């Protein structure tokens, strides 16, 4: 289990009272977790704060499942690390 997935599970469980057994990589935010658009944007904001990234509004439509979120966040973190490496 990736660190990003573990953190997402923790956020969903602690902040949104979602049972851990409901949180799988293939879980759909809207269909299976019942998040409406307001809740989804709050959740994305929680992800931004937890991981120190910015999620572009244009990219939001691509984040449908937890796997999509994990992949997106891992990509953003990788880009951040590469940018930091070039500073030194």
From TrEMBL:
GO cellular component, one term: chloroplast
Post-translation changes: 4'-phosphopantetheine is transferred from CoA to a specific serine of apo-ACP by AcpS. This modification is essential for activity because fatty acids are bound in thioester linkage to the sulfhydryl of the prosthetic group.
Principal place of residence: plastid
Modification O-(pantetheine 4'-phosphoryl)serine, positions: 37
GO molecular function: acyl carrier activity
Family: Belongs to the acyl carrier protein (ACP) family.
Name assigned to this protein: Acyl carrier protein
Species: Chaetoceros laevisporus
């Amino acid at each position: 289990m990736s660190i990003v997935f573990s953190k997402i599970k923790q956020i969903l469980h602690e902040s949104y009272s979602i049972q851990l057994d409901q949180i799988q990589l293939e879980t759909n935010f809207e269909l299976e977790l019942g998040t409406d658009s307001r809740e989804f944007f709050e959740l994305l904001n929680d992800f931004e704060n937890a991981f120190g990234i910015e999620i572009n509004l244009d990219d939001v439509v691509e984040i449908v499942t937890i796997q999509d979120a994990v992949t997106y966040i891992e990509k953003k973190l990788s880009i951040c690390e590469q940018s930091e490496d070039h500073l030194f």
